[in-house]
Specification:
The chain is about 65% helix and about 10% strand. Helix 1 packs antiparallel against helix 2, helix 1 packs parallel to helix 5 and helix 2 packs antiparallel against helix 3. The chain starts with a helix and ends with a strand.
C-alpha cells in the first residue's frame, strides 16, 4: 500500500510539473512557474522516496546493524531543506520583481491552470492521506503534506487570478506587481509546514524522545503490561526513529524473584512484547531485569 502511494505521488508530480511549466509560459506568470518548480522538486524527491521505502523493508545487516529506520527521518530532513531552498529562491525572485517594473500576465489562462492544478493536487492529497492513515507511514504522511501545500498554492493562484481577471482594470499601476505579491503570499503560507517537518524529523535523527503525549501513552501501556510481572519498580527510556519505537526498560524484581533463571526472564520479556505489539508493531524492546535499585535510570522510575 505504501509503495502504491509513493508511485501515485511520482506520477502526479510529473503531470503537475508539465502542467505548471506549460501554463507558466502561456500566462507569463512567475507564480505558476514556482508551482511547476515545486512539482518538479516533488517528483525528484518522490523517486528518492520510493528508494528509501524499499530500504526500510530490509532487515539489519553488517553495515546498518540497528536497521534502516533512520533513513526515513533523514530523508524527510533532506526534503524539508530542499523545499525551504525553493521557497527562499522564489521569495528572492518576487522581491526583485517588486523592486523593478513587475510583469504583466494573462489571468484568464492562469485561472484555467489553477482550477486544474487545485483539483488534481486535492485528489492526490486526499488519497495519500488515506494511505498514510492505513499504513502509518511517515514517508507518505510527509508526502501528503507536500501535496497539501501544492493544493494551497494552486488555490491561492486561482483566487488571485480570478480577482485579477474580473477586477484587473481597477488595480491600475499595481497590476504588474500582482504576480510577485502572490508569490510572496504563497511562500508565507507554505513556510510553516517544512519548518515543522524539519524540526520533528531532525529530532528523530538526533534520537530525541517522542512527543510528551506519545511518551505518556507509552508509559501507560507499559504500566499495563507490567501489571502481571513481579516487579517493585521499573524505569523506561525511549526514542522514535521514523516508524521504529525503541524502548529500553529496567525492571527491579521483587525480593522473592531475584534469583529467577534466564528462561523465566525470557517469559517475562515475551509477555511484555506480546502486550505491547498490537499498539506498537514496529517496536524494538530492550529489557533488563535487576535486583539492584541503582540500575534503574535516574529520573525515569515508575511505580509498579
Amino acid at each position: 500500500m505504501e509503495s502504491k502511494g509513493l508511485w501515485l505521488s511520482v506520477l502526479g508530480t510529473v503531470l503537475m510539473a508539465a502542467l505548471g511549466f506549460g501554463f507558466a509560459h502561456l500566462a507569463e506568470s512567475d507564480a505558476i512557474f514556482l508551482d511547476g518548480v515545486f512539482s518538479l522538486v516533488s517528483f525528484i524527491m518522490s523517486l528518492l522516496m520510493v528508494y528509501v521505502s524499499r530500504l526500510l523493508q530490509r532487515n539489519a545487516d553488517h553495515r546498518f546493524q540497528l536497521g534502516y529506520a533512520s533513513f526515513e527521518p533523514a530523508f524527510n530532513v533532506l526534503q524539508s531543506l530542499v523545499i525551504l531552498g525553493v521557497l527562499t529562491m522564489a521569495l528572492a525572485s518576487a522581491l526583485a520583481a517588486l523592486s523593478g517594473d513587475g510583469r504583466l500576465l494573462q489571468p484568464g489562462v492562469a485561472a484555467v491552470y489553477a482550477v486544474l492544478a487545485t483539483v488534481g493536487c486535492l485528489a492526490v492529497y486526499l488519497r495519500l492521506r488515506t494511505i498514510a492513515r492505513e499504513t502509518g507511514s511517515e514517508l507518505v504522511r510527509v508526502d501528503a503534506f507536500v501535496w497539501l501545500m501544492d493544493c494551497i498554492l494552486s488555490s491561492v493562484v486561482l483566487v488571485t487570478f480570478l480577482a485579477v481577471w474580473l477586477l484587473g482594470e481597477h488595480l491600475g499601476d499595481w497590476l504588474p506587481y500582482v504576480d510577485a505579491l502572490m508569490v510572496i503570499v504563497m511562500v508565507l503560507i507554505m513556510l510553516p509546514v517544512p519548518l515543522r517537518t524539519l524540526y520533528r524529523n531532525l529530532m528523530e535523527v538526533l534520537l530525541a524522545a517522542p512527543s510528551q503525549q506519545q511518551q505518556e501513552q507509552v508509559h501507560a501501556d507499559f504500566r499495563r503490561a507490567m501489571a502481571a510481572l513481579p516487579a517493585t519498580r521499573w524505569s523506561l527510556r525511549m526514542s522514535k526513529t521514523g516508524r521504529m519505537l525503541y524502548l529500553q526498560a529496567r525492571v527491579l524484581l521483587e525480593e522473592g524473584e531475584q534469583h529467577s533463571d534466564a528462561l523465566q526472564a525470557d517469559l517475562w520479556r515475551r509477555h511484555l512484547q506480546d502486550v505491547l505489539a498490537p499498539q506498537y508493531p514496529d517496536l524494538e524492546l530492550d529489557v533488563m531485569f535487576t535486583a539492584d535499585p541503582d540500575n534503574l535510570q535516574a529520573g525515569s522510575g515508575q511505580p509498579a
